[in-house]
Design brief:
Strand order of the largest sheet: 2-8-7-4-5
Structural class: alpha+beta
Helix content: 10-25%
Radius of gyration: 22 Å
Distance between the termini: 81 Å
Order of helices and strands: HEEEEEEEE
Number of helices: 1
Strand content: 35-45%
Largest sheet: 5 strands, mixed
Number of strands: 8
Oligomer: single chain
CATH architecture: Sandwich
Length: 107
């Protein structure tokens, strides 16, 4: 009987460990502006890179002017001067995290 409880407890602990291991952690959204920081000319592309993001497998970029795209890296050319907020949403199967930075586009 003791052997049965010992095996049952071990099985339950193993199952709980596997369940916890399968839960994904919340992504930590992080990005750099590789080209275009602190400002970019209207005719230049702004380049962003989410390589510093952890625990994500999907990346959604919003550039503050109605344009959005996906991928770990992205490029965007603005069609107007001004200050824009670039927003990155990093996602995995069950959670997401967002961060943003500003870029200024000049003539």
């Amino acid at each position: 009987m003791t052997n049965f409880f010992s095996r049952t407890a071990s099985t339950m602990l193993l199952a709980m460990g596997l369940l916890l291991a399968s839960c994904s952690q919340k992504p930590d959204a992080c990005f750099t502006i590789e080209k275009g920081q602190p400002s970019s000319k209207l005719s230049d592309e702004v380049q962003v890179n989410a390589a510093c993001t952890t625990d994500a497998d999907q990346y959604v970029w919003e550039f503050g002017d109605g344009f959005s795209t996906t991928g770990a890296t992205a490029k965007h050319k603005y069609s107007a001067v001004g200050q824009f907020t670039i927003k990155l949403t990093a996602k995995n199967e069950s959670q997401e995290s967002t961060t943003s930075k500003q870029v200024t586009i000049v003539q």
